[in-house]
Structures are given as structure tokens and as C-alpha cells.
Amino acid sequence: MARRLLVRFGLVVLAVLALLAPSSAVNAGGWALVTLDSTPTEVKAGTAFDIGFMVRQHGVRPIDGLTPKIEMWNATTKERVSVKAMAEGAEGHYVATITLPSSGEWGWTIESFGPVQTMAPLQVGTAAPVPAPESNVTASAPWQSIFGPWQLPIIAVALTLVAASALLVTRKRRMSAQA
Amino acid sequence: MKALAWLLGLALCTACASETATTTASQPTAHIALAERGKALFRNKGCATCHVNKRLEGETGIIAMGPVLTDYTNDPVWLRRWLHDPQSVRPGTQMPNLQLAPDEIEDLIAFLNQTQE
Fold this sequence. Notes:
The complex is a heterodimer.
Chain A: H1 2-20, E1 32-36, E2 49-57, E3 61-62, E4 69-74, E5 80-84, E6 86-87, E7 93-98, E8 104-111, E9 117-118, E10 122-124, H2 151-178
Antiparallel strand pairs in A: 1-2, 2-3, 2-7, 4-5, 4-8, 6-7, 8-9, 8-10
Chain B: H1 2-26, H2 34-44, H3 47-50, H4 76-84, H5 86-89, H6 102-112
């Protein structure tokens, strides 16, 4: 009887310990840090772009042989894109090529080893417009189609000098007239 | 005198136009403040995994191995050395070397030291 009670008590204690003990792989050291090569910029809807990143265990040791997954979503349009990254280049380095279907803000995560890592929201611009057939004008100012960037300051200086000279001549004439 | 006034006015307008044209021509298509870039880097370089920082939207510090950085600021000179090579500043630290580029370090410093309103 006493033995049965002891066994039952022991089982209960073991069960409680099992519940309290850390079950997450994170606590067992199974986590890695994802660091992007660079923050994606100038991303346009419908245009493919690459995302490169390193996966390092505890932020230190590069981990090879993974198949990281990138999940992206547009909260406005409810669209979702999922892409697997492939190993490329240095040990622990991966690259994924992504095309997002619409513009706006896209949230995204990278799941590689351990906890999913949330990245900074991506601002995606509208699809790149078809380039105009001609015109090399890069600025919106209309006078730039006539004058170059350095001609306008020179003209301004020249006009100022002409105005100053005319003023001096006028003053001299007045002074000589008064004299 | 009227003619002089017109000439001076024309010279002034031309000077303004040239400055506007130059500014328009050199303006980048996308301008992001240093601190905003630093905020993005805080996530994209993995800082948000180990450090809680409530200045960011969403969850941070899933691993929470490092100090909370919500209200953290520090001397930029020290931060520059720390972010470049943590082991050289504090040997044995768990802070990894994230191989940050100099401009990335400046962006992160701008974000960390940004005055909170």
C-alpha cells in the first residue's frame, strides 16, 4: 500500500516536473539570428528582387544546410507570398528571389532555425512605368530643358554684375552733374 | 532707376530658379531619415530578437538575452566601437559581431539615441 502511494506520488512529481521543465528548443539553445545583407529598397510590385541573409546560431556560428522560409503578407490586400531561400555563397548565407504582386506595406518573417524572426515592414512601390520614348529631362523644372545646371547660376551672376555696374555709372553721373 | 530695379529683380529670380533646379535635380527619389533606417535595421539585423525595444511595433526580444533597449541611449563614440566589434570592448560578451557596415552603425546609433517624444 505504502509502495503504491510512493509510486503514485513519484509519478505525479515527475508529471509536474515535465510540465514545468523548458520544452522549447529555444531554451535548449536551438535558436539562430538572421541578419539581412541589406534592407531592401526601391522594391516595385511585379519586379523580382533578391533578399540575402546570414543565419548564425546564437548570432555566432553560421549554419549551413537549412531551407529558410520567407513569408510575406499585405495587410490591405490580404495577399500572401511564401518563398524558400537557397544556400548561396558563404557558409550560412542564403538568398531568396521574390516578386510581390501589389504595392503597399508588406509584413514579412524569416523562419530558419528556431523562432521565426520578424523583419521591418517593406514598402513596395507601384509597378515600374513604361519609360517615355524620348526626353532626357530629369528635373521637373521647365527651364531645365533650355538651360543646363551650371548656366543658370552664371546668368544670375552676370545679371547682378550688369545691374551693379549700371548703378555705379548712374551714381557717378549724378555726382558729376551735382558738381 | 526702374530699369535697374527690373534688372536686379530678374537677377534675383534667375538665382532662385537655378537653386530650385539644382535642388530638384539632386533630390533623391526616396528619402529615409537616419533613425528610420536604424529602426528598420534593428529588426533586419536581428537586434530585435535578443533585445526588447518597445519603440518598435510588434513583438521584440523573443530570446531576450540582451538588455532592454526601449529607453537606451549612449555616447555615439562608444556605440560605434561596440557595434563594430563587441568583443574588443567587452571580451566574453554574448553580443555577437553582426558585421555591420559603417553606415549601418550610424543608422543604428541615430535610432538608439533618437529623442523620444
